[in-house]
Specification:
Number of helices: 11
Distance between the termini: 76 Å
Radius of gyration: 27 Å
Structural class: mainly alpha
Number of strands: 0
Helix content: over 70%
Length: about 375
Amino acid sequence: MMSRDAPADRSERSRATVPRFLDEGARWAWRFLVVVAALGLLVWLIARLAVVLIPVAVALILSSLLSPLVDRIARKVPRLLATWIVLLLSLAGVVGVATLLGQAIAGAVDDVVDEFDDAIADIEDWLQTGPLGLSEDRVDSLSQSATEVVERFASGLLDEPSSTVRLVVEVGGGFFLMLVLVFFFLKDGPQLWAWLLGRISLVRRTTVDASGRAAFDSLQGWIRGVAITGVVDGTLIGGAMLVLGVPAAIPLAVLTVLASFFPIVGATVAGALAVAIALSSQGVVIAIVLAVVVLVVQQVEGDVILPLVMRRQVSLHPIVILVSLAVGGAVGGLLGALVAVPLTASVNAAVGAAAALSQPREQLVIPDEGSSGLDPGTDPA
């Protein structure tokens, strides 16, 4: 009569015939495939809902920027009135700055385009007459390849809709949704966060609360740091261009400020464009001087300014930043690339806060009570 343990014995014997490394590898392999499938499904869902998720992400970023000001004004007036005051002042400030810079930028756009075209022509001429001595056909082939790469990159970031109506609906609807969300995030931030925490079990409420506050604090640190470093970079580089006599200094300074919201990539592109225009308009010596200035400014930014204005939890490895920009651009276009890095920094901060709470009691690091979070009633540290 066969023993009841016979099937188990056969399973043990068959398992013993499989090498241990193959058995362990198979276990890790199927787990890896499940994780990849889950991530792929998540990316697909985000891409499908990008029209909604991107305005939500932009609203969170803007709310993190404006909430400290609302908090201060709300100490003296009702929060509803404080929210309206901040929003109207912000819109008026944006319109005012755009009006002041619009004429100068519009007048210099043609110059920038012409200088950029001249710079490209000079580079192509140098490739033929310089030490490389490339043939004209080879230079034309390289130029065409570079143009195709730029077009593919732009199509991934800008990805224009198939019709003008769809473009207007998406942009207009997204902008309206973003404004409404910013208003309610600023006005009802504490109540919204309390409502969300009330739907979470008591066991996990503390962890979720700490993670959410850390994520929101990271957003505030990122937007504050990027704004400060962008203004510093734009001022220094634009001032250097004015001193050196490089045309279109003001538009390129504004472009440098805007490019700072795309870490690493934006600063590199803006600096390279400024040097190319200097090379075309002022010659090699001025271009080299401006290139040195750009490198020094970016080095000071990375080693001095960023550590002072950004908190440690906001910092990300350059590889993480580049991957975040690429994924954000592929999923949500230009706006997706814009919000990718701050959202990644927020997730990183949230995970760090949750991990800190999961440590043993004697190793637990208690965050500063003065640090701001999703509750707009607290001031940023």
